[in-house]
């Protein structure tokens, strides 16, 4: 393969990854973070980008090392725990939360500001998921559709808003931030975007597309995906920086009680008037559509493999789109309320397994994976229960608890204990 082709493919994959990562939450969090950070907006931006783009890049590399095979990432904890955890992860970023949320957000932030509340949400989400179906039904074309056509329009729309806000700022940041521990708040918000889950989910789609383009060598595949991941994360960082800065310029206007999803809507309208509404509608709709396409394809690939191809890829895509249409009618807040408890428990062990992938040649005892993941799940479950059971409140005093990582130290301890429990060098079936 010639260098020119490699460069083109790297850029296409980089743009596709950017678009799949950049969904609704990525538009909502940074501007609000800028408001509450005020003059220290860059500190908040740094924390957000570290936890979002940083974890996403780490997951991209990890899934590349696993040849795009989700089960290879999870298999060390045992067959059934691996199936349960991977299934929970895919459901969170798939039909349970993120895919329906893309449709709901398109309505709430993209269509409703233009059409008003007279247009029912069900009409919008039906059209949205019909588009998702037709653009997803051919998995080998997903990356090209997203990377070559949809992402450039998305980037242009966002750039127009950001450049206007930088050249003609709406104001100056307040004299001091509204909150303390700004970097920690940025980390917590970045953590909640779930982009490292997205990296895992789209791994099979990425590898399928690479194979169809003639990249058969695993080292070549890994190298290209790492480069594409860096491109995507640099792009995310630039957009996050711009959006966070825009938020800081209106920090004297809005308080902490402002509705987060309306911040970017209000900023865009102030900068560009009614034209801004149209541009934002395009940006929001494309951000959500590209994420929906990527995750629907990834979910279908995973479920098709899980059921040994007994259900065709196209049928699974159709099922996911129908389910997402029904779920999206609940609205963004309803979806988040249902999925957050599940997410709080499955996220930590997933991050643990992503990190341990890089040490798989050094770890000879599978119990390291099992105990580390188990301790992460236990602490996460206790943290969730601590809101209603005071006896479990001690977990909120563990190291790194203020930034949502109270499970890290117990997980390390669990891994160490596992290393001394029944050395097992056998590969998990």
TrEMBL record:
Q: What species was this sequence derived from?
A: Peptostreptococcus equinus
Superkingdom assignment: Bacteria
Topology class, membrane: Multi-pass membrane protein
Where, by residue number, does the polypeptide cross the bilayer? 12-33, 45-68, 80-99, 119-137, 149-171, 191-210, 222-243, 278-300, 312-332, 338-359, 371-392, 404-423
Query: What is its subcellular localisation?
Result: Cell membrane
Q: Which family does it belong to?
A: Belongs to the branched chain amino acid transporter family.
Taxonomic lineage from the root: Bacteria, Bacillati, Bacillota, Clostridia, Peptostreptococcales
Gene from which this protein is expressed: brnQ
Keyword annotations of the record: Amino-acid transport, Cell membrane, Membrane, Transmembrane, Transmembrane helix, Transport
- Kindly provide the name given to this protein in its UniProt entry: Branched-chain amino acid transport system carrier protein
| Record-linked PANTHER family | BRANCHED-CHAIN AMINO ACID PERMEASE BRNQ, BRANCHED-CHAIN AMINO ACID TRANSPORT SYSTEM 2 CARRIER PROTEIN
Tell me, what's a Pfam family for it? Branch_AA_trans
- Function (record text): Component of the transport system for branched-chain amino acids.
